[in-house]
Write a structure and sequence with these properties.
The chain is mainly α and 150 residues long. It has helices spanning 2-31, 33-36, 41-48, 52-55, 59-68, 73-80, 88-106, 109-135, 138-149.
């Protein structure tokens, strides 16, 4: 659905660009000293990983884009809720997040901007948890929820 795609891409882009530096750091550790020297591509990937959030739009810009597309939030939310009932901890997280989304949508635009990054970060976690429950391995979904949601 176009509405889910419109808002979901922005939320996903925010999430991926914020997580990339930590991921490349972990990859660098796998290679040890070889990963750090200039003879291997890992050092360049590590140096460039923070730049993705600039090339793809800074976190603030992406969060504001989510606010601009907030009319599509109900469709994204409906998609996220397809996992409802699968995990009680996630259900509680979603209940609090839904309340906060409703508050944010009632705020004046300047006030909403102050809360946008936090909201987008939490939406990304909810999207990922929902996708893992619906399409992923159940053990991976349980681990994700236990380590990041609860």
């Amino acid at each position: 659905d176009r509405d889910v795609f419109r808002i979901g891409v922005s939320v996903s882009k925010y999430f991926v660009t914020k997580r990339l530096p930590a991921l490349t750091y972990e990859c660098l550790e796998v290679f040890g000293g070889n990963g750090f020297v200039e003879d291997f591509p890992m050092s360049r990937l590590f140096r460039h990983s923070p730049l993705n959030s600039i090339w793809e739009g800074s976190g603030n810009v992406i969060a504001l884009d989510v606010l601009r597309g907030s009319k599509q939030l109900p469709m994204l939310w409906k998609d996220i809720l397809l996992c409802e009932g699968a995990d009680s901890g996630l259900d509680q997280y979603l209940k609090v997040l839904e309340r906060d989304i409703q508050k944010l949508l009632k705020m004046n635009p300047l006030e909403a901007q102050r809360h946008a990054r936090n909201l987008v970060d939490r939406l990304a976690m909810a999207m990922e948890a929902s996708a893992l429950i619906r399409f992923g391995d159940s053990k991976v979904a349980e681990s994700f929820i236990a380590s990041r949601i609860i």
